Amino acid sequence: MAGARLYDTIGATYTTTRRTEPRIAAQVWHALGDARTVLNVGAGTGSYEPADRDVTAVEPSSLMRAQRPAGAAPCVAAAAESLPFEDGSFDAAMAFATIHHWQDPIAGLREMRRVARRVVVFTHDTTEAGWLQRFWLTRDYLPEVRALIAGRPSLTELASAVAGRLEPVPVPWDCVDGFFEAYWRRPEAYLEEQVRRGVSVWSKVGTEAERRAVRQLRDDLVSGRWADRNHDLVTLETAELGLRLIVA
Is 239 left (phi over 0), alpha (psi -120 to 50) or beta? Predict the structure, then answer.
């Protein structure tokens, strides 16, 4: 329940910047196929839950559960690694930007496979060739992120746990969901306190690293160094930053 403890601490302002991005949601919902009953694991405040299907949510954090809007899907307090449902209870199980918080991601994925015939998971390729190098914020300003993912299962291992395939998820330049990579073409957004508070990475790297990264980014924006390093981004409509769907 480590993720629950984290979000009981940092989750109070998540609804300020975190919401469903329609273009990414369309890809997730398409991957759900013809599923009519859907389990959303690590559901948070309810983003990306399809309104036209019968959804049941699982969220261990009481603070996040309390922020689910009126009319949202019913939500159960439980951890991914021990889902309180019978085998094959759902047509599909989905998880969006959550498995990096799970104490045992492989066990959680296998639980999703146990209770559902289809599994759809949004996550990151955290290899050097993937997320770490493709995204300028991790590459140039937050080297501490490497320590956060050390020892975690690789994307290949995660997909293999459910016999899944991988789909790239491009991030639109004007993404309305303020997850970590969302502002790849709007770097000034990372200078805003409320934007950073909606992303768990900043809490995990610690105050000192956050202050240093923000200071360096601000200096590079003023000097033009960021623009020189990332000039190839300014004309892109979407970016490939190592975000993936696991579909099984």
Answer: beta
Q: What is d(CA 56, CA 36) in angstroms, rounded to the nearest whole number?
A: 11
Joined together, the tokens standing for residue 79 give: 């951890």
- Number of domains observed in the structure of the chain: 1
Unique residue bearing structure tokens 């979000």:
7
Beta carbons of 132 and 103 less than 8 angstroms apart: no
Between 134 and 218, name the one with better pLDDT. 218
pLDDT score of 165 more than 80: yes
In angstroms, the Cα distances linking 122 to 13, 25, 38, 203, 216 are 22, 10, 15, 21, 30
Neighbours of 110 (CB within 10 A): 15
Q: What's the pLDDT at 128?
A: 65
Helix (H, G, I), strand (E, B) or coil at 177: coil
- For residue 193, the enclosing domain spans 2-247
Distance in angstroms (rounded) separating the CA atoms of residues 51 and 69: 13
**Residue 90 structure tokens:** 């759902």
**CATH number for position 147:** 3.40.50.150
Contact 198, 192 (CB under 8 A): no
Locate 110 and state its tokens: 């296998």
Mean of pLDDT values over 122-146: 87
Ordered alpha helix ranges (H), 131-224 = 133-134, 136-140, 145-149, 155-161, 193-197, 200-205, 207-223
Cα separation, 185 vs 172, in Å, equals: 9
Q: Enter the pTM of the model.
A: 0.92
